[in-house]
């Protein structure tokens, strides 16, 4: 299949987080000349496809996800039956990010790579909690001494038209818990109290 044909088939999988609905198996079959490792953690299914080309050189990985958010109201067609109109393909996950996945899968087919190894890291846990996807695969790769030197993530980005930009680096998020203790007291003696709201205010500026 060419990239467009593959994308259309990939879009038909109802891979709503965290269920891949068979999409990962479909991808593994398409790249049968790559070694396939299905890495599961806490019920989340991930796929690592990897192929060694040379004994020396660098290891390049492509990263992405096949899961999608639930389809909301307002679709005029079945969101899992791709619709092509005026050169665009419409379906749940077409933009985020099955088009990107189809693109890098097509890119690595029959490729002559001068580096050491090519890998594809795919998860079904990006749109949800995102705890047991890419991180789990990278931990597995680290144990096998297979961590990549570089990675290309095909998440969509744009300025005016989808795909018109390539970003070096990516915004991330960090979550934590902050506990600020106060001291209870009487309203008539505020100097003897500690209001935690006052101490918390500077944190909001970070």
Characteristic terms for this protein:
alpha/beta; Aminopeptidase; 5 helices; extended; 206 residues; 5-stranded mixed sheet; two-stranded antiparallel sheet
Quick summary of this structure?
It is built from 5 helices and 7 strands, in the order H-H-E-E-E-E-E-H-E-H-E-H. It is of the alpha/beta class.
Blueprint of the fold:
Elements: H1 3-11, H2 23-30, E1 35-41, E2 44-52, E3 59-65, E4 83-85, E5 88-90, H3 94-108, E6 117-123, H4 134-143, E7 150-153, H5 196-200
Parallel strand pairs: 3-6, 3-7
Antiparallel strand pairs: 1-2, 2-6, 4-5
Helix pairs in contact: 1-3
Give structural notes.
The protein has 206 residues and is α/β, with parallel strands linked by helices. It has helices at 3-11, 23-30, 94-108, 134-143, 196-200, and strands at 35-41, 44-52, 59-65, 83-85, 88-90, 117-123, 150-153. The protein is extended, with a radius of gyration of 23 Å. The chain starts with a helix and ends in a 6-residue tail after the last helix.
Q: Roughly how many Å apart are the termini?
A: 50 Å
Runs in which pLDDT lies below 50 for 5 or more consecutive residues are: none
CATH fold naming: Aminopeptidase
How many domains, in number, for the residues?
1
Can you tell me the CATH class? Answer: Alpha Beta
What is the second-level CATH architecture? 3-Layer(aba) Sandwich
Q: What is the residue-mean pLDDT, rounded to a whole number? A: 93
């Amino acid at each position: 299949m060419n990239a467009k044909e593959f994308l259309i088939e990939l879009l038909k999988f109802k891979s709503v987080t965290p269920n891949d609905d068979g999409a990962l198996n479909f991808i593994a079959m398409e790249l049968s000349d790559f070694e396939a490792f299905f890495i599961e953690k806490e019920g989340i299914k991930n796929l690592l496809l990897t192929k060694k080309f040379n004994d020396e050189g660098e290891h390049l990985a492509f990263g992405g996800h096949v899961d999608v958010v639930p389809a909301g109201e307002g679709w005029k067609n079945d969101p899992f039956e791709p619709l092509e109109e005026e050169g665009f393909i419409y379906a749940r996950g077409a933009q985020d990010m099955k088009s990107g996945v189809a693109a890098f899968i097509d890119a690595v087919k029959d490729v002559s790579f001068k580096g050491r190894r090519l890998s594809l890291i795919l998860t079904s846990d990006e749109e949800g909690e995102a705890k047991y996807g890419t991180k789990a695969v990278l931990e597995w790769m680290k144990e096998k001494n297979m961590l990549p030197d570089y990675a290309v993530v095909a998440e969509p980005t744009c300025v005016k038209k989808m795909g018109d930009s390539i970003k070096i680096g990516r915004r991330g998020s960090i979550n934590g818990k902050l506990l600020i203790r106060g001291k209870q007291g009487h309203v008539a003696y505020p100097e003897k109290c500690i209001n935690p709201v006052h101490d918390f205010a500077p944190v909001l500026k970070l």
